[in-house]
Design goal:
The complex is a heterodimer of chains A (338) and B (216).
Chain A lengths: L3 H16 L38 H11 L4 H13 L10 H4 L3 H10 L10 H20 L9 H11 L3 H15 L8 H17 L1 H9 L9 H5 L8 H19 L4 H7 L9 H11 L2 H7 L3 H9 L7 H22 L1
Helix pairs in contact in A: 3-6, 5-6, 6-7, 6-8, 7-8, 9-10, 9-14, 9-17, 10-15, 14-17
Chain B lengths: L11 E8 L6 H10 L12 E10 L2 E10 L6 H5 L7 E7 L3 H5 L1 H11 L5 E7 L11 H10 L3 E4 L8 H21 L33
Parallel strand pairs in B: 1-3, 1-4, 4-5, 5-6
Antiparallel strand pairs in B: 2-3
The chains are: A mainly alpha (338), B alpha/beta (216).
């Protein structure tokens, strides 16, 4: 793949190929745009008044009605409130002003957004939860194809911790979700594409480990599902997450800015920017356990247990180093097939 | 069974699934049963997680491998893949939120679509400690369970009320089904609400560890 844009385009082609079996809205040419609406694309959309009035093509309506048969806005509201209340509080030391919010202000906001069952919580937790509700509800209206899916609060929480204004945090989240939203699609196209890439990276890097996974019928890499969906948020600490995400975003920004591979490689030992740094990092975390997996694990269940217990065990710098090494050696192979 | 740790000595391995709406307390029921832990701020489950615990039924050691699933509809496709091979299920609702009880019917259908018809199912009304907030009466749930031929129990993961009983009851019933099948004993409608056989296929997680039991 020659240009920086091409890897993005192959992504689209892959999604289209995966979509070929279904006739619903997934036939969308560009995974970053909801078919029949353009609201996730373009600067002019940064007007908070716009998103509520959307036009959908008939196929999108069909898709939406399928989803809405089981999940409607009130369902999302209910789940958002549940998740907001139980968001973790690790961000607290990193945002002094929000941590010091007054009881009155926190409760006023909580009341305004209809939060329930928060009496036992500290003001800063209530305040954080209420902000999560505000922005996640706005997002569910803004992007009704996705609405709210559990895991999204994990992605938003670090953002609102560092951005005190809701409107700014909202648009940051919208930008973040442009890519991440595909993980939450009901048809699982986005998540499957990403799991395929992780599988491909492992296959190219370590055929011995890959054969072992095949033997266990685990080569689909479903055991890293959670890492993909919430971008390592459950495995890493707050500080590590911010670190990984920023490196990941820097890569994506470099691609958007059209920074050539050669200029970039001088900065970072020949690892060109990639849209999928996260997936290389996930593959790296599995490869770090290769010996254990090959020698001791005899079923998929063992690997799932291992992956679910990585929390607090990872060194983010080692992870990034390993991921970059994988990018250097494999990006041509991986990106030419996806 | 080299894959399992040395301290794992068991006679039977049964796979159970925990299903039900988001926030009904599935993960806390699991952590209460397997680790005796409870966390008021436990995170939503993304995809699936599982834990194990062995108990003694009669003179046998029964190991339960319990799969905890994400509650949101959106994750149904991935979570239902994990129903395969399950011989027991705890279908959980929150006694303080009626909607979670209303959705039990959909969960039941989902479960029956994806599992063996002889799966042992227990309807579990969790958060029974929140007496002042109760929105689903015991009678209503009991009537539903009778109609649907499932077992029923109210629990509180927070107060550790009936959690042990609920899991033990399900495991014991599965054990009875399996050992009855092994012995080829005839019907005993009093002990079980419905069919007496559980399909213990070769690739089922529930396969018996020790030979002889299945081949009778």
């Amino acid at each position: 793949m020659e240009g920086d844009d091409s890897s993005r385009r192959t992504t689209n082609a892959d999604v289209s190929a995966l979509n070929s079996e279904s006739s619903d809205s997934d036939s969308s040419e560009d995974p970053e745009v909801i078919q029949g609406s353009t609201f996730l694309d373009g600067e002019e959309e940064n007007d908070p008044d716009v998103p509520l009035k959307r036009k959908f093509s008939p196929s999108t309506n069909e898709w939406l009605s399928k989803l809405h048969a089981t999940e409607d806005f009130s369902t999302w509201q209910r789940i958002i409130r549940l998740d907001a209340i139980r968001a973790n509080t690790e961000w607290m030391p990193y945002s002094v002003s929000q941590a010091a919010v007054s009881d009155r202000r926190a409760c006023r906001l909580a009341k305004a957004v209809g939060l329930k069952d928060y009496d036992h919580l500290e003001p800063y937790v209530i305040f954080h939860a209420a902000r999560l509700v505000t922005i996640l509800e706005a997002y569910a209206l803004y992007d009704p194809e996705i609405g709210y899916c559990q895991g999204m609060s994990d992605l938003l929480s670090p953002i609102i911790s560092v951005i005190p204004d809701d409107y700014e945090a909202f648009w940051c989240f919208v930008g973040f979700m442009k890519k991440a939203r595909h993980n939450f699609r009901l048809d699982e196209v986005g998540i499957r594409r990403q799991l395929n890439i992780v599988s491909k990276i492992i296959k190219c890097k370590d055929s011995h480990l890959y054969r072992h996974l095949e033997k266990l019928k685990a080569e689909d890499c479903f055991f890293v599902y959670r890492m993909v969906v919430v971008l390592f948020r459950r495995e890493l600490t707050f500080e590590q997450t911010i670190c990984l995400w920023e490196v990941m975003w820097a890569d994506q920004a470099a691609i958007r800015a059209g920074i050539g591979k050669s200029a970039w490689s001088r900065i970072r030992q020949r690892a060109p920017p990639t849209d999928d740094l996260l997936l290389y990092a996930i593959a790296a975390s599995v490869l770090q356990k290769r010996k254990l997996i090959i020698e001791n694990y005899g079923s998929t269940d063992d690997i799932i247990t291992e992956c679910n217990s990585m929390s607090g065990q990872l060194d983010v710098w080692k992870l990034l180093n390993d991921a970059h090494d994988l990018v250097v050696t494999l990006h041509d192979k991986i990106e030419s097939t996806f | 069974m080299a894959a399992y740790r040395a301290d794992d000595d068991y006679d039977y391995l049964f796979k159970l699934v925990l299903i039900g709406d988001s926030g009904v307390g599935k993960s806390n029921l699991l952590s209460r049963f397997t680790k005796n832990e409870f966390n008021l701020e436990s995170k939503s489950t993304i995809g699936v997680e599982f834990a194990t615990r062995s108990i003694r039924v009669d003179d046998k050691v029964v190991k339960a491998q319990i799969w905890d699933t994400a509650g949101q509809e959106r994750y149904r496709a991935i979570t239902s893949a994990y129903y395969r091979g399950a011989v027991g299920a705890l279908l959980v609702y929150d006694v303080t939120r009626h909607i979670t009880f209303e959705n039990v019917e959909r969960w039941l259908k989902e479960l029956r679509d994806h599992t063996d018809s002889n799966i042992v199912i227990m309807l579990v009304g969790n958060k029974a400690d929140l007496r002042h907030l109760r929105a689903v009466s015991t009678e209503e749930a009991k009537a539903f369970a009778e109609r649907e031929k499932t077992y029923f129990m109210e629990t509180s993961a927070l107060e550790s009320l009936n959690v042990e009983n609920a899991f033990t009851e399900v495991l014991t019933q599965i054990y009875h089904v399996v050992s009855r099948k092994a012995l080829e004993v005839g019907d005993d409608p009093a002990a079980l609400p419905k069919g007496q056989t559980i399909n213990v296929g070769k690739d089922d997680v529930s396969a018996l560890k020790k030979i002889g039991c299945c081949s009778a």
